[in-house]
Amino acid sequence: xCDSYHCSLLGPTDPNRYHMWTGWVxxxxxxxxxxxxxxxxxxxxxxxxxxxxxAGVSWKVYQDIGLGLTAAGxxxxxxxxFIGNYGDNSLLYFHxxxxxxxxxxxxDRAKTGTEVNKxxxxxxxxxxxxxxxxxxxTLPRVTWLVAPEAYTEHPNWEPHNGAWYVSQVIDILASNPxxxxxxxxxxxxxxxxxxxxHLVPPTPDPARSTVSTVNEIYPxxxxxxxxxxxxxxxxxxxxxxxxxxxxxxxxxxxxHTSLIRFLxxxxxxxxxxxxxxxxAVAGDLTSAFDxxxxxxxxxxxxxxxxxxxxxxTRQPDLVPVPPADPALPRQERGVRPARALPYALHADAxxxxxxxxxxxxxxxxxxxxxxxxxxxxxxVGPGRHFAEKLTAGDVEVHGPxxxxxxxxxxxxxxxVRARYDEHRDTxxxxxxxxxxxxxxxxxxxxxxGHAATLSLRPGTxxxxxxxxxxxxxxxxxxxxxxxxxAQYAGHLENGRDSITDPLMGGLV
Length: 508
Known about the structure:
About 40% of the residues are buried. The protein has eight helices and 26 strands. An eight-stranded antiparallel β-sheet has the order 15-14-17-18-25-24-21-22, with no helix packed on it. Strands 6-9-1-10 form a four-stranded mixed β-sheet. With about 500 residues, it is of the alpha+beta class. The chain has helices at about 50-55, 95-100, 105-110, 130-135, 160-175, 175-180, 255-265, 275-280, and strands at about 1-5, 25, 35, 60, 140-145, 185-190, 215-220, 225-230, 235-240, 250-255, 335-340, 345-350, 355-360, 365-370, 375-380, 385-390, 395-400, 405-410, 415-420, 425-435, 440-445, 450-455, 460-465, 475-480, 485-490, 500. Keywords: Hydrolase, Virulence. This is Alkaline phosphatase family protein. Pfam families: Phosphoesterase, PLipase_C_C.
């Protein structure tokens, strides 16, 4: 499972059209401009499948054609949720595909599909073309599969429909060992299902970014105010391959362009319409894989036969019924193995300034939340730093993979800075008394429950070592002196794979 932001090859087919996604597209001079709605008015810029075609990389969209992949057939989106493509073959909103006729690769690879409406609407027929190409060893090198509405797991459709559909795709791929041994399947979503997510998506601020934000700021117009595009809501993403097996979690920041970036790395076909800020902030998905040690053991997946839809009729939207005795849901107990991440982030408070540093290999967006003021989005590239003056005496700092800082400026003159000893999985807290009187300081480790008290004379400093070896790099420590507080939490990256947060998993 990956943490991704509107990350979509089982899903929408183009990097530039997602559910209410906003961004500047088409900088290749072919009808470019800001797209901020789902107007689907018809576009002309070059799509990534066209770049694959030009480079000689085979590709295809697998779908059901519904009542037709033309305007008359609503581009495959029909009132019958068990046929068609739910309008998610985004290539059909481009003029070059709309005007393509049989014999043209754009038509043959993006405007064909099954016709289950003529075969009794049987779900078993939905993947006929895909199954045939896998069996014959003629599967293109890049493929997109687009499901009908009833299988998309949108709120008014039972998740078991989607589970059955995805299981069919995996079973088909696994039926040909030659294909299974060198494939990667990306199962993606464009919505979060209505579940609460406390993480605010990263957004660019030209005044607070060490990397270029060109084409990431909407200038305003057509009744819409100016503002940053940034990433969308966080959505799930599952990667299935011999190099990702084992229940691994990857919490690097990704978005819908990450899939295109992955294909760039695999085939060397560059997509020029991805902005510099987005390339810096979002990864290319390679960190989700372990290409050195593929997992070739047979897969024993649960049977989904009983999940195949039997009632092929549209269902009304389900109205949630609040429980009579409401209670917050509990986090599933336990941890998962987690991939190593390219982050090494730092945030310290010095007087009225928050100092942000990035000593890692990937750009990160810090969200700085001063009490009583608007949150600030600050982008810091590798090897760079940024200082933000604050008027509030209480501030939180959030970053990727659970990075968290909380600073409350009080009357104490104690100052704290954190640094890392990655080789020993240790956080080093340099605590200094800059005042004129003795300072009593408490250092509390939330993971161990241990608290130590230090007494510092004026002008002296002590270094407190917080080991994170037992928790595989996870730390959460608070330094308190009177009404002054400095809390440091997150994960210490050392280049090795780790686990998900044991505190969140109820193991601490």
